[in-house]
Amino acid sequence: MEPHTSLLPPRGRAMPQPLIFACVLCLYVGLAWFGIALAGFQGTPLALLWLPAGVAVAALILFGERLWPAVLLGSLIANTPFLLPEHGHLAWLKALFFGLGAATIDTMEALIAYRLHRHFIGSRGLASVESVVRFMLFVVTLPGMVGAFALVTLYAIGGFLPASPAGESHGFLVDWASISLADMHGIFIVVPLALAWAVPRHPDATGVARSEILGISIAIVVIFVLALFQAKESVFLLVPLAVWITLRTGLRGTSLFMLVMSLVLSIAALRGLGPFAIEGEWGSMTQTMLFIFSIGFAALVLVAQQRELREINHSLEDLIQERTQALHDLNEKLQEQANTDELTGLLNRRAFIAQAEKEASRAQRSGARFALLMLDIDDFKVINDTHGHAAGDAALRAVSECCRDRLRKYDLIARLGGEEFCILAPDTDMQGARCLAEDLLRHVTALRVRTPSGVLSLTLSIGLAPFEGDLDLALKHADEALYEAKDQGKNRLHMAGDT
Predict the structure, then answer these.
(1) Dmax over Cα atoms in the chain, in whole Å?
(2) Which residue of 29, 142, 188, 424 shows the fewest CB atoms closer than 10 Å?
(3) Of the listed 109, 281, 419, 484, which one is catalytic?
């Protein structure tokens, strides 16, 4: 397993480790004393509300397991004063001994939960329904039950468990069950809250307006007032409210709502208020915890499903975009293949005529001029018959590359078929066309084409014609000028209209 220090991404200057240690220590001790004062077993550090369990696990998950001394020290400070029913040196030694034992158990519980979280959930957090189920089983339930069993056993050996806390008759199993629920509740409430607010926000929420926040806050207050003081059944209105908050705010809003709901209902139950207030704190807190776990688990599952659906949609969008781009590239490739001569890479006849017609339309509108050059490799049939078609193909490629290198970027060149080529030179008069033709003749004549049967020397015949408003007529004149160049002895140019 690769080393792990923190789930928090770097954000500029990191918080100093001693400051993190101090914050975790103070938060742990403060919440521990709050839980003991509010819901503690008489004369013991055991409490029915134990949020420090969640603080310990969240601290290790966010900042790494090197922070375990803060948990150990926090638990020692929180537990030891409540293990001093009597004064004296022996009482202090006994309190320190069992306080250190309790702190060790609390620390091991947090480390077990951290390791299980790392193994079964990892850095993705509660991003899937499977991860939520694993979180409940391996991070909340298993460490909470094991830690509570060890702690109750330790306090039973030390004689710290009263026979009848808060006027109730408790046995070992009841004490274990109550402390298990307390630890599980702390992990269940605090860890999602810490994970949701400590890391960069995931786009869970669709965005909530201030008016919606105000409305939902009023609704929460109204439901709590009704459930605690008027109609106890109103507490079930929290279910649709939780669904709305989950769908609109994602994990952040959901975890915050779970914390508020948990504290309000727990404190009310301990004070004998609300729908879960029955005779005895243990029964009241048990019903409260089951209600909180039910709504909270359903909310976390809904958040995870929303994220899974969003990730599926993103994957589908990426796949569609990828396939669309692939189809676009294929269409471009097919279009290029349809417009390109396979052997030379030049435009083919159809593509050349289409672009030449566009140039002719532009010239007619603007009064621009262009020239056409019709080229033919001299004695090409002899090359094929004497040296083979491979040599002929090499000659075609060599001539096309030579001509393309001598042209401007916006000049058009195409292989019309066989050994015949055509060049359209925009914004070019006949004098410019002549200079271009002479340059092509000179460079093609200097070519030496290596073939399996020897080195070939090549020459061209070129016919030139201006565009004078009719593309077909210009092509015809250039073709006729080409044949004139052939008749005059090849390896030369001839301009249309010359005698």
Answers:
(1) 132
(2) 142
(3) 419
